[in-house]
Design goal:
One of its GO terms (cellular component) is plasma membrane. This protein is mostly helical. The chain is about 75% helix and about 0% strand. The relative contact order is 0.05.
């Protein structure tokens, strides 16, 4: 404002500037208010949705504890429809698959788990669903399909699940009577440092027989 000679000139220029810009300034203020208000509304909506999903999942767990499979499946379906993008919906799907297993409907359980493997964005949840699916493939004699699922896993994303995959690979090979490959798989599981005592038991159970020179027709 130093370029103007008098205060009157400065005031006059301010008036002109305001007349030229007041509409855009007011619009900017209103836009900012709407953005802040909209963000708060969205945040509150998200919080409410998470709260509702959590409550539905708690109800599902209570139904599962009572072995009420009909209620478990109904609540799992509701979570899938109303809160499908949440982790609660994915955990509910796993519970629904277990309910189907308890009902001896293994094909339905496999279909649910297959959908989770294909559609869930969270890698850890994918691994959990895939491992359970492989267990069902083992139970239903789909050994080659189970091995293909394991072979398709990206090792970089499965570091925390490596022992489980190796152990299940061993189980599949045992079922196929391919014991050398089963031993290798169990040994790989143990080398990860994540294997349970059960893995060692499985390995010991199929340990190679001691070398018998007589059987090989060699001098003793």
């Amino acid at each position: 404002m130093a370029i103007y000679d008098t205060e009157e000139e400065q005031v006059e220029q301010l008036k002109k500037w305001w007349e030229a810009n007041n509409t855009s300034l007011i619009a900017g203020v209103i836009t900012a208010i709407l953005l802040v208000t909209g963000w708060n509304v969205w945040q509150n909506h998200q919080l409410e949705q998470r709260s509702q999903a959590s409550q539905l999942y708690q109800n599902l767990l209570a139904s599962a504890a009572k072995n009420d499979s009909a209620s478990v499946e109904k609540l799992a379906d509701q979570l899938a429809v109303e809160h499908g993008s949440t982790a609660y919906a994915h955990f509910a799907a796993l519970a629904k698959a277990k309910s189907k297993v308890d009902e001896s409907d293994l094909e339905a359980a496999k279909a649910i788990l297959q959908q989770q493997v294909q559609n869930v964005g969270d890698e850890e949840l994918q691994h959990v669903a895939r491992l359970r699916l492989i267990q069902l493939m083992l139970a239903t004699g789909q050994y080659e399909e189970g091995l293909k699922l394991i072979a398709a896993v990206d090792p970089a994303s499965a570091e925390g699940f490596a022992a489980s995959y190796d152990e299940q690979e061993g189980d599949l090979y045992v079922a196929m009577d391919r014991l050398d490959e089963a031993r290798t798989a169990y040994q790989n599981a143990i080398r990860t440092g994540q294997a349970t005592a059960l893995t060692q038991f499985k390995l010991d159970d199929i340990a190679a027989p001691a070398f018998n020179p007589a059987a090989a027709n060699l001098p003793q």
